[in-house]
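INPUT
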Amino acid sequence: MTSEHAPIIEMRNIEKHFGSVIALAGVSVDVFPGECHCLLGDNGAGKSTFIKTMSGVHKPTAGEIMFEGKPMHFADPRDAISAGIATVHQHLAMIPLMSVSRNFFMGNEPVKKVGPLKLFDHDYANNVTMEEMRKMGINLRGPDQAVGTLSGGERQTVAIARAVHFGAKVLILDEPTSALGVRQTANVLATIDKVRKQGIAVVFITHNVRHALAVGDRFTVLNRGKTLGTAQRGQITPEELQDMMAGGQEMVALEGSLGGTV
Amino acid sequence: MTDTAQTPEQDERVKEISSFRKALIRPELGGICGTVIVFLFFAIFAGNSGMFNSQGVLNWSTVSAQFMIIAVGACLLMIAGEFDLSVGSMIGFAGMMIAIFSVSLGWPVWLAIILAFLICMSIGALNGYIVIKTGLPSFIVTLAFLFILRGFTIFIPQQLENRTIIGGIADAAEGDWLAPLFGGQVGGWFFEFLGERGLIEVFERGTRAGEPVVDGIPMLIIWALVLVAFGHFLLTRTQFGNWIFAAGGDAEAARNSGVPVNAVKIKMFIMTAFCATVFATCQVMEFGSAAADRGILKEFEAIIAVVIGGALLTGGYGSVIGAALGALIFGVVQQGLFFTGVESSLFRVFLGVILLLAVILNTYIRRLITGER
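OUTPUT
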């Protein structure tokens, strides 16, 4: 479905060592524009290290990152952000004490020059925030409403809307649904679908197979710092994914006793 | 999975909030209420004591201004998520540096002041750098500097002059171009005008007969107002202000969004040191001397003023205007009890009660605003 496109980001044989610990032992993943690429793996599989490498937090020990066909070396997250790689973190996306509009523009504040002074353009920030929130289906009391008053799903949606507004080409979502209820999860998955249809490449990290299958186009499973392969939608069953994530063995026995509900 | 994201136009669980309530619910509310209570209290109990004539007003304004100067620095730093417990020692140290450079070494006063600012702001930067690099709580790092700076403030003059109080700065500052910026007064003509019109009291006898009892606004008060205005503007109207909130609210989230958290925190440590040095310079110019025990406990007074003003001890939330009101409450209570003739130890009791009430009110308001539980 995306064969005529070139991948927007290509990670080739990425290795990352922390001292004597090998967190990533040669992981390769490519992501195309407009697809939702799910990265699955159990705790400790290296998902977080991998996306941190993609978003410029870590420098890979070995391997190449190709972004829009060119090799990229990100010095820090700012570099990655300005190239168009945005990350929405599980818990660390929003600051509850600050207003929605201050959060929305955090790190990218609109600036209005008055003489030599650079002022925060609150009017612009408030208008844009209200508009973007309306598009995502969230009704705010006002742009000065604190993020702490929003639900978990709404916070994720604000974070995603923010990334899209600032021109993200690759959107990395780090377990956006893991702490959410059913209805909120549905909202976030619907948001992912909207974003993908705008032609943005989404990297969706999760350890929930059902969430992945609901929106994913392709699925890559990580286990102990290695890729266990990438599958297209429709080529793989939930059970197969589940088994790959868990490493295959114990899960089979467990599934039997739990009646396949995990 | 079907899309259940059909959000109704108006969420039935979001209550409408009246505009009156909205205007009332702000971080400074605790400080505003405290200020009103304190002024009412003293208007009733000290109304005739001279507390509210020109000299009395100048008296508590000056004391409040002192608190305000250090509260601005402490407030911005606290919102950025850090503490500085070395403020009091920094005040003593900065004053002593000015005295040593200008009196013991005989350098010009302007040079002494500039050097004191440079040294103290570097120490502030060092405080910040250590906190950032080690990841230790700033509480511990700056507590260490509380002792280190106080130690040097006693050690250096003892070595050089064999005493811990150095006087003679007033003589040294005579004709200096920079000293009046800290020790001078402004608006003398205005008070003369008021005195001539009989609007304020004038001296009735002595060499200064006919001159107004208040001969100008001390630069200390001007510094306080300028710093409060600057701090409030920086925090609420600029990009950097947003970074201060973000750094204190959640440093990790702020970093993820590209906010240079470390630089923001170090700059706020420098700002706090700057405020402490302004305080010290004004004090040294006013007294004409520096003493090794100056500024003791000022760090706590600054933090108390900031907390009365609605700031959250753990960072990310607060108001410079609130901190200024906290400082005003502090100054008015301290001087007011003197005017009422009440035993001065009651100052602490009264202050403790105000602190507790303001913080309880602030916590309640903050929960309303931020949805904290």
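end of record. The mean pLDDT of chain A is 83.
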